[in-house]
Design a protein that fits this description.
There is one protein chain. By secondary structure, this protein is mostly helical. Belongs to the plant organ size related (OSR) protein family. It is a multi-pass membrane protein. This is ARGOS-like protein.
């Protein structure tokens, strides 16, 4: 009777649920990657690819061939500095959350 009360497993090495989920997630990621690969290969036509390649080559070659340009006016050099200061001020400016229009508050 000792053998009758014992429960026998059908599968000696059951797959853990986490391992099965991980395997399914990996298969899904591989399928998504293959789909993205197909989309990326059809995203650019041959003509668009040639235009981008010519633009890249011209950006690499033209600065070596053309004469150097004169420096820009000094007032124009302050434009990036002013934009950076404006962005820093806006980043650290306190906001009143109660006045912001949002659906989740």
């Amino acid at each position: 009777m000792e053998g009758g009360n014992r429960r026998h497993r059908r599968n000696p090495a059951p797959i853990r649920p986490n391992a099965a989920k991980l395997h399914l997630q990996q298969q899904q990621q591989e399928a998504d990657f293959n789909d993205k690969k197909v989309i990326a290969s059809t995203y650019f036509s041959i003509g668009a690819f040639l235009v981008l390649a010519c633009l890249t080559v011209s950006l690499l070659i033209l600065p070596l061939v053309l004469p150097p340009l004169p420096p820009p006016p000094s007032l124009l050099l302050w434009l990036p500095v002013c934009l950076l200061i404006l962005l820093i001020v806006l980043a650290f400016m306190p906001t009143d959350v109660r006045n912001m229009a949002s659906s989740y508050l």
